[in-house]
Amino acid sequence: MNLFHIPGKISLKKIKKDQLLIVVLAGILLLVIALPTEKKGVEKGKTQTGLGLSEGTPEVSQDEYLSNLESRLAAALSQMAGVGDVTVMITLKSSAQKVVEKDLAVTNEAVSESDSQGGARTTQNSTHGETTVYNDGGSSGEPYVSKELSPQIEGVVVIAEGGGDSVVKQNITEAVQALFGIDTHKIRIMKKSSK
Question: What interhelical angle do 62-78 and 166-180 show, nearest 10?
Fold first, then answer.
C-alpha cells in the first residue's frame, strides 16, 4: 500500500448531505474565528459623564467639567420665565473617581482539636487578598475601570436678574435640586445688581 497515493477525483455523489453540511459549517466557523476583534475591555470602563460627552472622548479636567456644567446650568435657567440674565457658580465636594475592578480571594479555615482529657479547642484562620484586574491580562499596565463616578456637587450659587422674586427663587431652587440632587440649604439665589 502506497501512503502517498492520492485518489484522482472525489465524486460529489459519494459525499453525503450531512458530510457536506459539516464541511460548510466548519468553514464558516474558521472564518468567524479568523475575523479581527475590537478591544472591548477599554471601552467597557468608560461611561457617559454629566457633560453630555459620548464614550471614547478624551478626559476633561475638573476645571473644564465645572465650567461646562456652570454654563449649561446658566443657559437652562436663563430660559425660565422671569429669571433673566444669570450667573452660576458651582462648588464640588469631591473630584471624579474611577472604580477599578479587583479580584477578591478569601480563605477561611477552621480546625477543631480535642485531647484525651476531654478538652477541646477550635482555631479559625482567615485570609483576605485583592488583586487588581488589568486590561489585556496585565500586558498593557492599565487597570480595568469598571465605572467612573462624576464629581459630587457641594453647593450652587445663582445670581439672576429675577432673583428678588420669591416665585422665581422657588423655581430656580427646584430646578437645581432636580438636576443635582442637593439639599435646599446648599442652594443660594440672589438678585443681580443693576449696573
Answer: 140
Q: State the residue for C-alpha cell 432673583.
A: 163
**Residue 153 CA: distances (Å) to CA of 37, 58, 79, 177, 189:** 39, 22, 23, 11, 16
Cα(32)–Cα(27) distance, rounded to whole angstroms?
Answer: 9
Q: Alpha-carbon distance 168 to 77, whole Å?
A: 10
Q: Which helix (H) or strand (E) holds 173?
A: helix 166-180
The cell numbers describing 10, all together, are: 472525489
Q: What is the CA radius of gyration of the chain?
A: 33
Look at the block and give the residue holding cell 435646599. Answer: 184
Residue 69: count other Cβ atoms within 10 Å of its Cβ.
Answer: 22
Residue-wise pLDDT for 39-70, tens only, equals 544 444 443 334 444 344 456 778 888 889 99
Which strands form 86-92's sheet, in the order they lie side by side?
86-92, 153-160, 187-191
Cα torsion 38, 39, 41, 46 to 10°: value is -80
Per-residue model confidence as pLDDT tens digits over 146-172: 777 778 889 999 999 988 899 999 999
Question: What's the pTM?
Answer: 0.49
Question: For residue 45, which of 60, 35, 55 has the smallest C-alpha distance?
Answer: 55
